[in-house]
Amino acid sequence: MLMVEVFEPVGELLRALEVLAVARTIMSYNDDQALIEKVVVLQEYVERSKMFPERDYTIIIHKAISEVVAEIQLALKCELILSDVERNRRELVEGSRSHAPNQGILFAD
User: Fold this and answer.
1) How many distinct helices (H) and strands (E) make up the chain?
2) Cα separation, 18 vs 68, whole angstroms
3) What's the CA gap between 75 and 94, in Å, rounded?
4) 75, 32 in Cβ contact below 8 A?
5) Mapped to the 3 state alphabet, what secondary structure does the chain carry?
């Protein structure tokens, strides 16, 4: 059975605006060129759909949304990996401090 996706123009436009908001938030924290490029493309199609309401940009907006969402997911995965690496580094540093012998400290009787 062949499944065909049907997109509602208004629904796709609203979804595009939501995805753009998330992407802009991520872009405010880092300079992800791939994400920036995908956002520019999606934003352009959103603007065109507003300027030319008689034209149907639904399918191309859906494709652009998918590309931005993929970049968002990649950016978030990278951020999670980096935060895990940083957490592990801190745990190693703290662990090495707690197991280090007291050197240079003299105790008086």
Assistant:
1) 3, 0
2) 11
3) 28
4) yes
5) CCCCCCCCHHHHHHHHHHHHHHHHHHHHHCCCHHHHHHHHHHHHHHHHHHHCCCCCCHHHHHHHHHHHHHHHHHHHHHHHHHHHHHHHHHHHHHHHHHHCCCCCCCCCC
Mean pLDDT by 10 residues, the chain (109 residues): 57 93 93 94 95 92 96 92 85 74 55
Domain ranges in the chain?
9-94
- Residue 3's pLDDT is 47
Q: Identify the three-state secondary structure at position 78.
A: helix
pTM for the predicted model, two decimal places:
0.72
